[in-house]
Amino acid sequence: MPPVGDATRTYGQWWDSTEPRVRVAIADLERVGRAAYESVGASPDDASFLTATNLDKAIQGDHARGVGKIPGLIAAARAGKLDMAPTVAIVREHGATAIVDGGPKAFGRLVCKFGIDLAIDKAREFGVGFVGARGTAELLTPFIARAVDQGMVAMAMVQSVPTVAPLGGTVALLGNAPMAWGVPTADREPVICDMSFTQSSASPILTAADQGEPIAPGLLLDEHGNPTTNAADFPDWDLIRATGGTGVAVKGSLVPLGDSHKGFAMVFLVGLLSSMLTDTDPPWTLYHHLPERGRYGTTLLVIDPRRLDPSGNVYTKVDAFVDMITSAPRKEGVDEILYPGLRSQQLKRERRAEGAIAIPASQFAAMAELAASVSQPLEGTG
Length: 382
What we know:
Elements: E1 21-25, H1 26-39, H2 44-59, H3 70-78, E2 89-94, E3 97-101, H4 108-126, E4 128-134, H5 141-148, E5 153-158, E6 179-183, E7 191-195, H6 202-211, E8 220-221, E9 227-228, H7 237-242, E10 253-254, H8 261-276, E11 298-303, H9 314-326, H10 342-354, E12 356-360, H11 361-373
Parallel strand pairs: 3-4
Antiparallel strand pairs: 1-12, 2-3, 4-11, 5-6, 5-11, 6-7, 8-9, 8-10
Helix pairs in contact: 1-2, 1-11, 4-5
C-alpha cells in the first residue's frame, strides 16, 4: 500500500493493485475507448466524455475505477443491459428545477450529462439550477467540472449500493454518500472536492480483499459490527458470484467519516436526499442480487456566483482565499500546502504531458481484447 501523502497519488489514496504494469499511450486508450463506445451507439461527443470519466481516474492512479471498467460497460451494452444512446427527457419541470430520465436501461452517466447541462442553463437564467437525474453518475468530478468550466459553482450527490450500516447497527442499508463540490477560480486550478463520507470508499477495500491484503484499523466493521483489519470481512463473495461478478454485495460495513455520529449523519442525509430530490428509490433497494432493483438518483446543483457578487471580482476573490491558505506557515518537512482537488489536477496535467500511463496487466489485456473487437490496435510495453 502506498503511504498517505505519497506525491505520486491523490492524497489518502492508499490502495493499489499488486499486478505487474503495462505502459500504454494515453492517446491510444482514448482512441480505443471512443471507438468502443461508438460501436454500441454512443455519439462521438458522448463517447469522448464517457472514455474520459474512467481514463482520468487511471491517469491519477486510481485503477480500481480506471480504464479497467470500460470493457465491462461495453459488454453490458452489447448484451442489451445498458443503452448508450438513450433519449433523455425532462419529465418534471418548475422554474429553476427539473427531473430528467432516460429510462431504466439508460447509462446513468449520460442521463447526468444531460442533467448537469440543463442545470447550467437554468443557472444562467435564474442564478441557480437544480436537476434530479434518474440514474447514477458514479464518478462525480466530470459533471462538476462541466459547470466549473462555465464559471459556475456546482454540487452533486449520488445514491450508491448499501455499504454502510446505521450507527450501532450491523446490516448495511446506506451507501457511502458520495458528494462533490466545484468552485471556479480566476488563475488557479479550480477547487474540486469529491469524496464520500466514510473512512474509505468501497473499491480499495474490495481490492485489498481480492489481493488478500490487510487494511488499516478504523476503516471497516465486520458483519457483527466489530472493528476489523481483515478486508475479507467486507465483501459477500457468494452474492457477488450470484450476480455474475458484476455487482457489489457486502456483509461488513464501511465506517462513517470520523467514526462518529457526524459522519453517519452525512451518510444518512446524502442517502435520503439522493432519493427524495430525484423521485427515485432508497439505497436498500439497490442490492445487485435483488430480482427487481430500485433506481439510482443523482442530484445536480449549479449556482452562478456572479448573480450574488456583481463586483466582477468573484473569481479573483477565490484565488485570494486559495493563496491565503496555501501560503500559510508550514510544519517542518511539509513542502506544500494543498487545497481540494489540486493534487489530482497536477497529476493529470503531468501525466498527460508524459503521454503514457502504466496500468495493471489484467486491465491492459481486457482493453487489448476490446480494441481487437472494434478493429483498433493497442500496444503496450512492460
